[in-house]
What does this fold into?
Amino acid sequence: MALLSDDPSLARPELEAFWMPFTANRQFKAAPRMVVKAEGMYYTTDDGRRILDGFAGLWCCNAGHCRKPIVEAIQKQAATMDYAPAFQMGQPLAFELASRIARMAPGALDHVFFCNSGSEAVDSALKIALAYHRVRGEGARTRLIGRERGYHGVGFGGISVGGIPSNRKMFGALLAGVDHLPHTHDPARNAYSRGQPQNGAELADALERLIALHDASTIAAVIVEPLAGSTGVLVPPKGYLQRLREITKRHGILLIFDEVITAFGRLGAAFASEVYGVEPDMITFAKGVTSGTVPMGGVVVSGEIHRAFMDGPPGAIELFHGYTYSAHVLACAAGIASLQLYEDEKLFERAARMAPKLEQAMHSLRGAPHVIDVRNQGLVAAVEVAARPGAVGARGYDIFLRCFEDGVLVRQTGDILALAPALIVEEAQIDRMVESLRKALGAVA
Ligand SMILES: Cc1ncc(COP(=O)(O)O)c(C=O)c1O
It folds into this structure.
C-alpha cells in the first residue's frame, strides 16, 4: 500500500490520492481552496471564511444550499429505503418524479428516462435517437450533429458531438459519423448584447449544407445547448433555434436540446425551450432537478418517440439501456422535494424577476479594464476579458482567484468569468458579486 504521508516533498500529503476532475491538480494542491459547509447563498471555507456563491455550486444548486425541505426528504428516504433496483422493479418515487417532470415539460414531451448525470443524459438521448430511427425502419439514420464550442459532458457520445477541442483531442477517434454546426459566437456583430443577440440566425442554415453533404436519410439527430453554458455563456441569436427546428423537422431529423444547465429555472422558466418558444423532440436535464444535492440526470422524450418503442411484443424489453442507479430513490426524493420547493417559492418566476438586475449589474462592467464583452440571459451572465498574449486563461484565472480571496465564488472558463447564482439570490448579493469582479478587473495585470 502506498503510504502517501511518507513522501516528504508533499506539502499536504492527505490531498494526494484524489485525482481531481477538470482541475490543475498540482496548482490546487499547492494552495487548496476547501469548503466544508454550505447554507443558502454561502459556502464556508475550512478556515472559517464565508464565500458568496455566485455560481450555484456548478450551475446546479438552484434552490440555494442545504435547503431544509430537500435535506429532510433525503434524510427520511435514506432511513426508509436506501436503494431499489430499477430493472424489472419499481419504487413509487420514480413514477411520481417522472410524472412531475413530464407535466412541467413543454408540449408533447411527456416521458422521462432517468440516469445520474448530464453526461449520461446526453449518451442516453443519443442512443434513444439512433434506436428510434431503427425501430421505425430508418436504421440508416446514424449520423449525429453537434456544434462547435458545445459542451455535452464527458462520455464518448458527449465529447463526440461536443465542440471543445481540449475535451476531445486526447481521446482518439471518438464516435464515427459525427459532424458539427458552426458556433454562434460573433463578437464583431454582437458584443455587449443584452439578452439574445440580433445577428446570427442564418448560422442555422449551415445545417442545410450538412444535410446536402450527408443526405438527410443518414442523419439521426442534432444536439445543441439552447444557451451554451460551459463554453462561456453563448446566448442564441434571435431566430436561430427556430430555424434549427424548422430545418430538422422538414428533414425528419430529431432535435435534442441539452438543458443540463438551462432546465429548472436558470432562464426564468422550467425549460429554456419555453423561454425561446421552440419545442425539441428531446430534452436532457441533470443538475437543477435535485438542486445539486444528489446526482441525477435524465431525458424527456416526446410521446411520438416513446410510442415508437412500445410496438413490439409486450413481454419484450423495449430499450436495452439503463443504469444501476437510474431513478435512484434518494435522487427521486431529492428531486420531488426540489421541484416542490421551486413551486412553493415561485423560484422560476423569481429568476425572471431578478434577471434585469443581473443584466444591469454585469453590463456596468463595460469599460472596466480588460473587458471585451458582457453577455447575459435570465440568471446567467458572463464578462469576457482580453487574453494575455501567449497565455490564454491566465488573466481569467487571476480574476477568479482574486474574487475568491475577496469572498465571492465566480466561474472561470478561459478568459470568461460567469455568474449563475441560485435563484434565491438577493439584489444586494448580485451587487456584491459584480463589485468583486470590478475590483479584480482593476487589480489584475
Ligand atoms: C449542457 C451540459 N451537458 C452536459 C453536462 C455534463 O453534466 P455532468 O457533469 O453532470 O455529466 C453539462 C455540465 O456542465 C452541461 O453543461
Remarks:
- Residues 59, 117-119, 122, 151-153, 225, 229-230, 258, 260-261, 286 surround pyridoxal-5'-phosphate (CB under 6 Å).
- The radius of gyration is 22 Å.
- The chain has a mean pLDDT of 97.
